Amino acid sequence: MRPASLLAGLSAAAVSASWPEHPGAADSPGFATSYTARVPIKPSNESARANAFRIFNAIHSAGRQWGTAIYHNGFSFMPAIMPKGTITYHGAPDKDPPTGFEWLAYEIEHAENFARSEKHPHWPPPPPWKGEEASFQKPLQPLGPSHTGAQEDTTSSISEGQTRRGYLQTYQANRDLHLLLIDGMSAAKTSMGTLDSQDLLLRENKTFRSGIWDEWQRAEDICSMIADWGYDGFIRDEIGFEVVYCDFSQGLDLISSTRSFFQEDKMGDWSLVLWQWVRAAGDRYDGISNDRVRIDLSSMVSGFFFPINISSTIPERPDLERLGAASLEELVDIKHYLAQVAKQPRRFTVDWQGAVVDLIVNRYADRIAHMATEDISTDHFIQELEGIALGYINAPDEDDDSETGGAYNKANETMVAVHRCTQHYLHRSYASRSEWSASDELIHTAISSIMEGICSTVFIMRSMLLQASGRTESTAFYINRKSDSDEMRRAVELSKAMTRNMVEKLGWADWKRTRPCPIDEVLFVAMWPFGNSDDHWNPGCRTIDDLASGMRMGYWFMDRPPPPP
Ligand SMILES: *[C@@H]1O[C@H](CO)[C@@H](O)[C@H](O)[C@H]1NC(C)=O
Ligand SMILES: *[C@@H]1O[C@H](CO)[C@@H](O)[C@H](O)[C@H]1NC(C)=O
Ligand SMILES: *[C@@H]1O[C@H](CO)[C@@H](O)[C@H](O)[C@H]1NC(C)=O
Ligand SMILES: *[C@@H]1O[C@H](CO)[C@@H](O)[C@H](O)[C@H]1NC(C)=O
User: Fold this and answer.
1) Cα–Cα distance between 404 and 410 in angstroms, integer?
2) Which pTM was predicted?
């Protein structure tokens, strides 16, 4: 029998000890009786804690194509600024700027899809009205449906000989533009939940009969609402980030408008078009950059802050959590709360993404993933664990370490270490604590609870390994990895199970990405003083063994050997 199964019972208890409870729905207060006056739901620390994993991931994915695609059902709104000078693109059937609202893309390839010139278009030219069924900017069929289009125009056909020209318009923001980021893949016209934050929450379920394809009315409704809040438009995501810009007559300078070529006049067929578009969108997996959008997380409002049901409503896809499981009244409460927060001046008090969450993911993601691999050796597992844990522990000095024991209080030191570990990446945010908004408090609650989970798991694992490695005074503070007892092997198996549980709960989107190197290798270029000639001329993946001597050198010391250590 495998040790892991022997420990299954214990494992469950230990593993769940420190993590936030799975949220639910079950603890949603809702409204008890229909005859009591309804009190609007409010954001709460309890909800932030219950949804800690989701809030953490929403912050990590904000404005980033990868995580946004993985967690495509958005629950959050984040006021943002597109800085003055930012360049964006619009594909149009006209050389002149549109009047009123229209779509802007962050990537050229995205806009070009709507700027095609056609000798024999498969759809009618744009109608003179902008109604529910308007079909401006309809891309060619092989490349999927339009972001602004209505349903397929099966009834109409173009008269022979008519051509359609397309224009790629390039704009520059002539002031800082105020935008509302609607997170998740919110430009995806689906019924999976990607539109819940717009159609149910912002629009209160008042959609036209075209449902998910009600794009024109959706843009108009949301534009007129957020114009009152002082916004110029809203940001959404599909294959590329886009802005629904509410009034082209202000805030933007047209810097060029170029007529596109007919397909017949180009060498290329269609074969590279989608591939190039994916490549362009993929360049934004890690973000469209702070220079093009600054996200004010201190003004974030999320459905995850509220005590609502977020279950999936699609039985075959229990993973698809959505706002649509909450009641419409609750969603309207959230909308009213959002309106209050969104109207306030921009804060940018804490950069929760870049200054906190990213540093946590950088430090823990690869380490935890390595520790969670099936075939990691006990030795490597313990060294990775020590690599996280020991920096937070004040080691005993020689007196403490003696047979008689000293003043050193192991249990207390562990408690203090867990606290140091939990707080480590939060200190950055405390620098501005006196200015925190309610959103900052709620985000802090979520991130602290993630860190408490990670750090207590780390130190529970360490305590188990300490115990398993013997109880003599001299080993009391150290994991004796030479110890080859059954007990030790079991403790390691249990620790691995806890690590895998951690991976599952955290659900970091980056773990779904292809790695440049296997998890037990690193991408290495010679960096002084380390690295040999090969590492400079052929940088690449290096194994633990390649670097094990700690003396991989040569490139920087070609004339003379390094001085003795
Ligand atoms: C939450 O929503 C799901 C999906 O609509 C539903 O099946 C479930 O009963 C709801 N839970 C509660 C406690 O209302
Ligand atoms: C959450 O907790 C913090 C710190 O205790 C508190 O300042 C804040 O008001 C709480 N937020 C809510 C919405 O209850
Ligand atoms: C939205 O409206 C549709 C159609 O009227 C209805 O079936 C659905 O239950 C409504 N959704 C909510 C959350 O009220
Ligand atoms: C634990 O350690 C802290 C910091 O060194 C100290 O202030 C505290 O008194 C200790 N508590 C106990 C119970 O030893």
Assistant:
1) 14
2) 0.88
